[in-house]
Every structure is written in structure tokens, then in C-alpha cells.
Automatic annotation (TrEMBL), chain A:
Membrane topology, record value: Multi-pass membrane protein
Keywords associated with the record: Cell membrane, Membrane, Transmembrane, Transmembrane helix, Transport
Regions annotated as coiled coil: none
Name the record gives this protein: Carbohydrate ABC transporter permease
Origin: domain of life: Bacteria
Transport among keywords: yes
Compartments reported by the entry: Cell membrane
Domain ABC transmembrane type-1 per the UniProt entry, residue ranges: 68-259
Organism of this sequence: Antiquaquibacter soli
PANTHER family in the record: ABC TRANSPORTER PERMEASE PROTEIN MG189-RELATED, ABC TRANSPORTER PERMEASE PROTEIN MG189-RELATED-RELATED
A Pfam family that the UniProt record links to this protein: BPD_transp_1
TrEMBL record, chain C:
Keywords tagged on the record: Signal, Transport
Family membership noted in the UniProt record: Belongs to the bacterial solute-binding protein 1 family.
One Pfam family here: SBP_bac_1
Organism the protein comes from: Antiquaquibacter soli
Signal sequence segment: 1-21
Domain of life of the organism encoding this protein: Bacteria
Keyword Cell division recorded: no
Protein name: Extracellular solute-binding protein
Classification via InterPro entries: Bact_solute-bd_prot1, SBP
Amino acid sequence: MIVRRSEAVIGRIVLVVVLVLTLIPLLNMVSAALQPADTNPTGLAWPTDPQWGNFVTAFETGNVWRLMGSSLFIVAFVVPVSLLFATLAGYALGNLRMRGGRFLFLFLILGLTIPFEALIIPLYYQSQALGVLNTQWAVILPLIGLYMPFSVVWMRAHFVGVPQELSEAARVDGATTLQEFWRIQLPLARPALSALAILLFLWTWNQFLLPVVLISDPLNRTVAGALTFFQGQYYSSIPLLNAGALIIIVPTILVFVIFQRQFIQALLQGAVKG
Amino acid sequence: MARRGTLVGWLFALPALIAYLAFVIYPLLLGVQYSFYRWNGVGPSEWVGLANYIRVFTDDTLLGSIRNAFVLIGFFTIIPVSAGLVLATLIRSVRRGFFASASQTILFLPQIIPLAAAGIAWSWMYAQTGAVNQILNAVGLGFLARPWLGDLQTALPAVGLIGSWVLTGLCTVLFLTGIGKIDQSLYEAVRLDGASWWREFITVTVPGLRQEIAVLVTITIIAALSSFDIIYTTTLGGPGRATLVPGISIYRIGFTQSEVGLASAFGIVLMALVLACVLPIQRLARAGER
Amino acid sequence: MALSRPLALAATTAVAMLALAGCAPGGSGPAPTNSVEVSTELTTEDVVLTIADETGFPLTDELAAEFTKQYPNVTFNITRDTFQNLTANAPKLLASDTPPDLIRLPTIGDTVKDGLLANLDPWFDAYGWDTWSAAQLAPLRVNEDNVRGSGSLYQLGLGYSITGIYMNTTLADQLGIDAPPTTIAELEEDLALAKAAGILPIMAGDKDGVVNFVVQAAMNQYNDPAEMMDWILNVPGATYDTPGNVQGAELIREWADKGYFPSDINAIDYASFVSRFQGGEGLFTFNGNWAAADTQAKMGENVDFFLVPPVEEGGDHVAMGAANSFSVAAGSKHLNEIVFFLNWIHTNDAARQIVTDVTGASPGGDPAQKQPEVAPGSLIEDALAMSAQIAAENGQVDFMANATAGIYAGAIIPESQLLVTSQITGDEFVKAVQAFYEQELAG
């Protein structure tokens, strides 16, 4: 790679500026969260007497354990079920390439462009009819369906890339389709699967519209959906509101930092293929 | 053999298809149905034909929210994609090492926190006593200081810039990887010609990133037209109706005002708008490939 | 045609679904109120009552705790959400299979028409609530035509509120203002005095519409309160577009032009304007009795609370006030128990004391019953006196935000945000609100 010297210098400066701009709002949350809880902090300033106790207060009064439990419950169903369904369908579309598969694929692609806002009103009455309104299922079931187009398209892209010879070899050995899928295809799909799992985790954890509309008790929502509850709970204390919001985003940041290599890789592939 | 493949194939695809039909296609049809009725969500309903659609296209408030959504495209799509392109070109020189990977992580952070949290963080940044005004004062631009989200002129751009903040990192990182895949000999060739930085950018980088650009434009346009979380946690559509967007309108009409038919019609119109914006981009991207 | 079979399959599915979608939604008719034998005896079984309330108002927590202390077999499960979310969710919550027994419900909307609220008439007779203030209960009634003000009782108040002006007396002393203004003209003199001295005349916020305490207070002084009340109660033919309302709204526009409101008013929400006033910013603020206890705690002796003055010296006062209204869900499985709780709040001395201590509001109920004790000279004492005066002068009007379910978010908040920043005239404000009102009632 050829890089002009001036470019390299400008590049570094610009990068540093952009990084600072990216970080300021987050640092501002930290600085606000550390001010005394009963004051209205002003601007970005490192507190003279950092109130780490605010995090404890926000954690306890915000029912964070319950919120995390509720979010995990939702994630624990949405992610595995989506993965399973999407892998099966992706294998069918990408490897088996059955008749009519092309049509099914286009039919799913259509779903990629539907904004959740367009479906939220009927989804509400649907969950009411199913008797799951105001329970976590009201979010779990629709999310599995709503994430399905992306998940299937994603897994199909992986299976399209797997050489057909592998399947043929397996079948020559007398393996059934199910055996071949389980023993050969699934292990090969692990990177694609884990990337999809991370994406689905973040999307579910951060999902806001569905829980706000479909679950009336904020404590049964996803943590992101419960942020409105924090806004209500700490309406008079900006430090506690920021402390609460920070507690809520920590798990996503942790997951991201731990899996960031796979995650960015995944997003890159997904974006290019999708 | 082919027959078995077809049967088994559909069997494998069945669970996904059912989930999709049950929770995307069925609600979509349900929404179409509601859109022809006047219904408060509980009591009896009344067939009103296209009246709800006519209201979507004649009500100033609803049209205003659509206009605001299109303004947001400027902030969610144009700024992040063009800034991402420029940044990626400038930054590609610093791609390896700890600094580079740390910057990648940081640039991505806004993308992984909940949008609702971004809204909370920024409404505090934009407050009268917040960091934005503090910084303006510090650099001698104090006369510009204002309650950014409470000011009719600045509220929409201010909300839009939150979207730019969230999406610029995503665009930059995707473009960086895209640039890495561009054939280096192309760069060498234009440099030997003594081309300027700008010429190199236009003739090599942008065409090489066509696919990434198409994808990012699509994703960000959908994000702009269907924005909800950020507005909900910052302005709720105010002041006046300066930041009212379709997502907030649908929520308010459907649930606060209990006009389910009108809200459903607006939802269908929103979906049609997204398709109308996204399909031509796909066409363009594909045409460019050939 | 390789595509034909799945295509046909998909087409059939789609047609089937469209056929399904062809039937009209809803239409099941009103759900019946759970029929129970009306009883004024509390059950001895263990019962959990559920309450849906708004965030930031701890009254139900304290009442529930006291009730459980007196009747240990009854416990409570109270969920809270923001006012905005709760009002949007209320009809949905009530219509669900597991509605809360008791819900904070500022606007009735279609809930009575749809049979979602329990009719309290049988208990009214059983408990003998006819000794309570009829005027206080009137706005909580709904008739067959879905018009509030008369008919059957569907709500009760956990405290009955009153609004007025808080004055920072430290700043008033600096300005040489030694007493509350007794006319609007005097109030305007005080505002001008403050502005000239570089003191913010009125602390108010309008991010969430609370400046309408000021807007309506101004309108009230020029308007016939009965007319405003009719409009709020959706009496057919009532209009918002009255000369008095226009005059009041124009006065607000004038105050906005003169810079009497904070410059960042549209970024200030309820909590911020209260805490900023308590922190010493602003000569006046318009708010209700519910802020009295907290304001007293923060500002001590340096604050006064009084009714908005009339136009003419010695004229009758008009003020917004309303029940902190709660409704019982028609689908509640504990109708007798939850009504027992409501009756207890109005009649038990300990409960009445809690209502007043926590909210500064009058507990309502039988006027002949012993009133809660308050500290002499306190803001809460002021508030109770103001309530009594308004009752005597028959000058109570409901909050205009309670006119319809959608009007606050859909018209009053956005239009007032324009009014207080001098973007529209008072006349435009009034006409826009009326237009929205007509559209919503027609819809």
C-alpha cells in the first residue's frame, strides 16, 4: 500500500478528532453519573467528589436484577430459536436448492425492508388475541418472525459458499440429509452462526419499540425498553438517570468487546452479502 | 433425487416460513385490513374505505412528519456515508496495530448501545447547561449557545446529528474494509499518472466501494424513515411538531388517540415509502455491477 | 414452470389470509362488568390488589402500606409508568385479560363506552356516598351519551387538587413586592418589575406541556368557567374558541414577547421547572398543591402559595382543580375489595391524613368529617384554604388536557410550544386546539 506522508498525518489527526467526538457523549454520561444525586450537574466536568454510590443506588432502585433477568429470558428464546430455524432454512435455500426456493428467497427479502413501526399496531392486537400481551412472549414471538428474513438470508449466504462436493461425498457415503446436515454442515457453519448469534443478541437486548408497546410493566421488558422507566423513575435526578443508563449498556459493551473480532467481521460480511 | 430434495428442502424451510408468515406477513395483512376501518381498538368497527389513506395524504401534521423523516435522511444517510467515505480514505494509512484496533472498537461503540440510551445521553449533551453549550462557550462561540432540542430551528438537525453520531462509525469501519479489498494496482496506476487525492478518491475509491455504499445507503435510509427510539427519548416530536416523525405519529394515533385504522394506514404508507426509496437503490447498485 | 407450485401455494395462503382479513376487526361489544354481589364487608381471605399508577407520585405506595397495616390479609402490587406511557396504555391495560384492579386514569375517553370501567353506582348507594361533596364527584360521572359531568360514577379521586401561583418571597422582597397580587393587572406589574430587575418573572417549562398551567390560568380569568367545563366534559356544541380563551391566550403571547418565560422553556420539563424554581430561579411559578410539601421542604419560609387573581379587584377566583382520578377496571376480580379500599381512603382518618401530607390535597369525602391536621402557616394549609375558597366561589374547572385522550399530546403541547415562543398568536392557538378537538371527537 502506498500512502503519502501528508495523508498519513492528516489521517491520524482526523481519526483522533473523530474518536474524541465519538467518546464525548459517553464520557459525559459517566461524568454526570458521578455528580451528587440531588444536584443538576452542568456540562462536562470531572466531579470533584465522584459519587460511585450512584451506581449502587441506581442498581437497587432501578430493579436492575429483574430487568436483566427479563432481558435474558427474552434473549434466551429469541436467539436460539431464530438460529435453529434460520440454519435449517438457510441450508435448504443455499445447499438443497429445492424447487421454488428462489421464490421463497425473494419473498423473505421483501421482509427485510418492512419497518417495525408499520407492523406495531397489528402486532399489538395479534398478541392480545394470542393472550400473551404484557408478557415477555409478546416480544419473543414477533421478534423471532421479524428477525427471520435477515437470519435466513444470512445463513443462506453461508451455505451457498460451501462446496457442493461435500454434500455429494456425504451422500455417496449413504448419509441421510439430516445426518449430513448435522455432522458436516453444522460444524462448518459455526463462524456464521456465532456471528449471527451476537447480532441477534444485540438487536434483541437493544430492542425498544416492541417492549414499550407490548409489555405494560416496564420491569418485564428488555433493558432498553425499560429506559423509559428509568426516565420516569429518575425524572428529577440526571446523575441517577445516567448511572442507570450506563448500567444498562454495560452488558452490550462487554459482549461487544469480548466478541468484537467476530462481530465486526460478521457485520462486514453481512453488509456485503445482504 | 430432485423430488426428495424438494420435499426435504421445504421441510427444512418450514419452521422459518411459519415464523415469518405468522409474525410478519399475517400482521401485515391485518394492518391492511385495519386500515380500511374506523376502529378504537376495543369497540365495534366501521368500514370507511380509503378515508384513512386520504387523511394520511391531506393531514398537515401527518404530512409534516413524513417531511421530517426525509430531512432526517440527510443526517442518517448523507452525512454518515459521505463522512465515512472521507474518513475511511484518510484513516486507511493507520490501519494496523493497537491504535487502529482500539479506534475501530471506539468508532463502533455508538452502534452497539441502545438507541434509546443514545437519546438519553444526547438530550443531556444538548441541554441549556449541557456539554454542547459548554464547549461553544469555551471556544468563544457562546452566542450560538441555546437549548438545542427546545429550539424550533435546531431541534430537528440536533436530533438528526444523534443519528449521524450513531451511524458514522459503522460506515467508516465498513468502508475501511472495503478499501482493503480494492485492487492496489489501481491506486498505483492513478498515482503514477500524478492524479490528485480527489481524483483518486473519485476514480478508484468510490467505484470500488459501490456495493458497500449501496448497502449502507439502504440500511441508513430505513433507519431514518423509521426512526422512533431517539425521538421518543429526546423530544417526543416537539417543540411544536418540529421533530415529529411517522413512528411517533403512528404510536400516538394508534395508542393515545385509539384511532387504530388511521394508524394502520399510516404504517402501510410508511412501508410503501421505504420500499419506494430502497428499491431504486438496489436497481442502481445492480445496474452498476454489470 | 418451476415456480408454479410454490407460487400457487403462496397465492392460496395469501388469499386465505385476505379472506380472514376481510372480516371487520373488534365488534365484540362492551365487556360486561364482572357481576358480583355488592358488599361493604372486607373479605377475610388473602387478596393481592393491583394498581397501575404514574411515576413520581408515591401516594398509592403509602396508602397501600397503611391499608395492609390495618388489614394484613390485603397486599398490593403497584406498577408505575410515566404519565405519557400510562395514558397511552390505559385502554389497552383495561381491555387485557388481566387488568389492574385500580388505575390512574386522567381521561376517560372511550373507556366507559367500551365497557372497560366498573360502574360504581351500586357502591355509592351501599356505602352512602351521598354525604360527599356532589360537586367534587360530578366530573367523575359519565352519562349514556358518553358525556362527563352527570350520570353514573366511574371514578374517584385520591385527593382533590387545586392550582395556583407560588411566589419566591426572597425575590419578592428584593423587588419591594410585599403581598400576592390581587388582580391580573397587579400580577403584570410584578412581572414587569422582575423583568426590569433582571429576575426571571415566571419559571415554567413546556417540554411536556406543563406551561399550560399558566395558559389555562390566564384563560380562566377571562372565561366563563362553566363554558370551559362543558368543553372539557365534551358537552355537544361546546367550543374552545371563545373570546375569553382567545384573550387569555393572547396574554400569554404578550408575556412570551416580553420575555417573561425562560428562554429554554421548550427544553424544560415538569421536574426541571419545579427544581429550578425551588433552587431560587424565577419570581413566580404556576403549579398545584401536589408540589406544596416538597417546595416547603426545599424553600422553607421563603415561599408563598395563592390563587391566581381575577381581572377585577374582589372578583371571584377561578382555578384548575381535579380529582387525582382513579378508575376500577370492569374486569377486576376484586371489585368489592378495591372499592372498600377507595371508600377507606375517603373515610379513614389515617388515610385522609396521608393524602394531605403526601400531596397537599384535600382528601374529599364527607365535608363534615374531621379534616387532616396541617402545620399552621404551611403551604399545605394555604392549599386547603384555597380549595375551600374555590369551592365557596364555585370556581373550579378541570384541566383542559383532560378534554380528550389525544388532545394533550396531539394539540395542546405542540401548539403551546409555538405560543410561548411567539411563533403563533393566541387566536391561532385556540383555533388549532378546537380543530383537533372536533376531529378527535368525530373520529
